[in-house]
Structure formats: C-alpha cells, structure tokens
Design goal:
The chain has helices spanning 3-32, 40-75, 80-83, 87-102, 111-149, 156-196, 199-204, 228-259, 262-277, 280-301, 311-321, 323-335, 339-347, 352-380, 384-389, 407-414, 424-458, and strands at residues 208-209, 224-225. By secondary structure, the protein is an all-alpha fold. It has two domains: 3-154, no CATH class; 224-458, MetI-like (MetI-like fold), CATH 1.10.3720. Strands 1-2 form a two-stranded antiparallel ribbon. Helix 2 (40-75) packs antiparallel against helix 5 (111-149) and helix 9 (262-277) packs antiparallel against helix 12. The radius of gyration is 31 Å and the shape is flat.
Length: 459
C-alpha cells in the first residue's frame, strides 16, 4: 500500500474510532449511572489520538530511513568495480537505478543496473507492505488500549489537553529550530567565504565585481567583493519606497478610520489592499515600461540626465506596492483605540484633528511602527522590481536618478545556474544573506526601542 493511501486510511480510522468511542462513553455513563468526568467527545479524541499518533510517528521515521537503507542494500549487490569510486559516481549510479525504477530511462543500460533496479523495486514493495502491517497493528492496539480506559472517572479531557499542549510546544520548537537552522547555515557558509575573502574587504570595499576567471592571466581573476555599493543601493531604493509608502499609507489609514463614511470605507479599503495581491513581476513590468521611461523623458525635458534604469523608478513603484502594508495595519490599530479616549478628548474641548494627533496616534503608535517595519522589511527583501527597473549595476551613488542594485538581487544573480559551493563567487551570496539578516535584525531592535519609549510615555 502506498504511503499516501496508508495515511488516508489511518485518518479515516481515527475518525471512525472517535465516533465509536464517543458513543461508547455515553453507553458506559448510562449503564453505570455515573456522570462522566469529561464530555463524550474527549473520550473520542483520546481514542483517535492513540489510533493515529503512533502510526504517524512510525510512518515518519520509516520514511526518513527507508531510502538510505534500501539504497545501501542495493549498492552492496553491485560489483566492487562499480561502487569503488567517487561519491559523485555513486550518486550517478543511484540516479540511474531510480530512473530505471521510474521507467524514465530510455538509453541502453547495463545488466547490473537492471538487476539493481529490480531489487530496488522489490525491496520498496516489501518495505511498503511491512510498513502497512506495522502501522495498522499499532493503530489497532492503540484503539483497544484507549477503549479499555473509558470509564466515568477517567480524565479524558486532561489527557487530550496534555497531548495538545505537547503538540503546540513541538510546533513552537519547530519554528525556533527552523530559524536557528537558517541562521547557522548562512553563518557557516559565510565563515567559509570570509576564510577566502577578508571580512574587511567585504564590509568596507567600494567595488563589487564577483566574477572570478578560470585562469590567473584573465582580467578580474581575483574578483572584487566590496558590499558597500549593494548596501547603499538597497538603502537608497528602500528610502525612496518609504518616502512614498509611509505618508500615503498612514494618511489614508487616518482618513479611512476617522473621516470616511462606512460606505466609502467598505469600497476603498479592499481596493487599497488589492495592491498587495498584485504579483511583483507585474510591478516590475509597470516600472520598466511605464515609470522608468516617464522619469527619463521628464528629466530630459528639464535638463537632467536620468538613467533608463534608475533607483527612483524602482523606489516609486516599490512604494506603491507596500502602501497596503502600512495602510491596512495602521487602520486596524487606529480602529482598535478605545472610543472612550476619543470621547474624553472631545469632552475636554479638543477638535477632531487634535484628538487624532495627540490621542489616537500615540495610542496606536506601536501598531503603526509595526506596519512601517513590515513595509521596510518588504522593501529590503524585494528583488523582481529592482531587477527590471533598477538594473544590476553595483554603483556607489546617492543619486536616485542612476542605476543601482540591491543585496537580494545579487544573491539571486550569484546562485543562478550551475554553481560550485567552494567558490568565493557562490559563497558571497551567503555572506550577503548574513548582512541582510543583521540589517533587518537591527531595524527590529530599533523599532522595538521606539515602541517601548512611546508606550511608556503614553501609559
């Protein structure tokens, strides 16, 4: 039985045992004349957990080990001259075997590979059969064990809540461990990069040219890995985007929450939030085909030299894209301010504008700062608009009319195509990722301190 079918069967068994155990709990209560400690549904959940969880754990562990065990067993049957080679050649042999098993190999293959593929298929079928038998046996044992526990004084609700608590803790640990794993993977690869390129050259270098030639006599063979042009380009485009997004987003949120009628708000807010659902590649096309030529032509009319790909064009369109992040979150937090604060300000003689400026905005400031922070993170992490509207030129400039590039754009560029992960060019992507992580972490710390300061002043 395939694993997907087995999973579906176990889930159906869990549903059936829930219904059966719930009815059994009611029957036990009726026959003994005692009141159940928990609702009948909790007895059903308790039985379902014993039916499903052991089998799911076995399936997960089995699936993680099955491939390596079967592959190792198949490789041991091959001749020694085929397996006594490099890991890359062994990997190619394993791929050939799996392609034959899948029926996608059309070229001529050796008899040894054919025999290994047959063995691989046989072992996989036996593994699935054995997994099915073990899983169903565990589910059956779990059901009867849980069924024997059903009694009026059995604390089924406590047992179920304990399991759910452990599940929630496990989910939290998965999120934490995933974050730790991402940071460690980026950090370890960055350390490898800094062993090849001095960290001072990377952090303070003013030229970015990661191309490394194949021969020492070729131009640019040593490469240049100064990240300053990328960081300045990222900050330049992000600043232009925030200059557009923050005032428009915040003022639109204030109008929608404090001045607009309910009818206008019900129409305008969904229309603003539609901007967040437009794919970034569409914004990139709009920036490259409409905004950039318009800025270039307008600059030519007033005597300014504007690049066909400029930070201004990318920043303007990016700012339009992240308006909903500022507007929607700010609107929600402004609406969350208690009406009693507004009424108290009006009772003291404050006008509506004074109430908004001196009462509502300070009260909603943590949420507003959170929305702005989310917008900044979105702007720093944007790639497609920059590629299409700002270009790939790593120019060290503060002029928004020139072409620049960003950290995320260069990360994508460095990892496109077949790359060797022992080259500084490829490892530079991880170093840039580490810089981007530290940059966003610093922004978070600054925002939290600002929020804490204003919150204490308000309270």
């Amino acid at each position: 039985m395939e694993k997907s079918t087995l999973l579906l069967l176990i889930i159906l068994l869990g549903i059936a045992t829930h219904v059966w155990s719930s009815r059994t709990a009611k029957s036990v209560a009726a026959s003994t004349g005692k009141k159940l400690h928990s609702l009948p549904g909790f007895y059903g959940y308790f039985t379902s957990l014993w039916c499903v969880l052991p089998s799911l754990l076995v399936i997960g562990l089995w699936s993680s080990l099955e491939g390596s065990v079967i592959t190792s067993a198949v490789l041991h049957t091959l001749p020694t001259e085929m397996t006594a080679t490099t890991p890359e050649q062994i990997s190619l042999i394993v791929n050939d075997i799996k392609n034959v098993v899948a029926g996608s190999r059309t070229a001529e293959i050796s008899p040894e590979i054919t025999a290994a593929a047959d063995l691989f298929k046989t072992l996989s079928q036996r593994s699935n059969l054995l997994l099915t038998l073990i899983s169903l046996a565990l589910s059956t044992i779990g059901v009867f064990f849980a069924r024997s526990k059903i009694a009026p004084d059995f604390q089924a609700r406590n047992q179920v809540e304990r399991v759910l608590t452990l599940g929630l803790i496990g989910c939290a640990l998965v999120a934490i461990l995933t974050t730790v794993g991402i940071v460690l993977s980026v950090l370890l690869e960055s350390i490898r990069f800094f062993q090849m390129i001095p960290i001072t050259d990377f952090l303070f270098g003013l030229k970015w040219s990661p191309q490394i030639a194949m021969r020492a006599d070729q131009a640019g063979s040593s490469g240049a890995f100064g990240a300053i042009p990328l960081i300045t380009g990222t900050m330049l485009i992000s600043c232009v985007a925030m200059v557009v997004a923050v005032p428009i987003g915040l003022l639109s949120a204030i109008y929608l929450s404090e001045y607009a009628t309910l009818k206008f708000r019900s129409i305008a807010k969904p229309l603003i939030e539609i901007l967040a659902g437009i794919p970034t590649v569409v914004y990139g096309f709009f920036a490259a085909l409409v905004v950039a030529p318009f800025i270039r032509d307008m600059g030519a009319n007033i005597g300014l030299e504007v690049s066909s790909e400029s930070a201004l064009a990318a920043g303007l369109v990016m700012g339009i894209m992240i308006i909903p992040f500022v507007s929607s979150l700010s609107d929600d937090f402004i609406n969350a301010v208690p009406q009693s604060l507004r009424d108290g300000a009006y009772a003291l003689g404050a006008t509506q504008a004074e109430t908004i400026r001196q009462v509502i905005i300070p009260a909603a400031l943590p949420g507003i700062v959170g929305g702005i922070l989310l917008a900044v993170s979105r702007a720093i992490g944007e790639t497609m608009i920059v590629v299409m509207a700002a270009g790939l030129s790593a120019n060290l400039t503060a002029n928004p009319l020139e072409a620049v590039t960003t950290v995320t754009t260069q990360i994508v560029t460095l990892l496109v195509g077949d790359q060797e992960f022992d080259s500084p060019k490829t490892l530079a992507a991880f170093a840039l990722g580490l810089v981007l992580f530290l940059l966003t972490l610093t922004l978070n710390i600054i925002a939290l301190r600002i929020v804490r300061k204003y919150r204490e002043q308000y309270e």
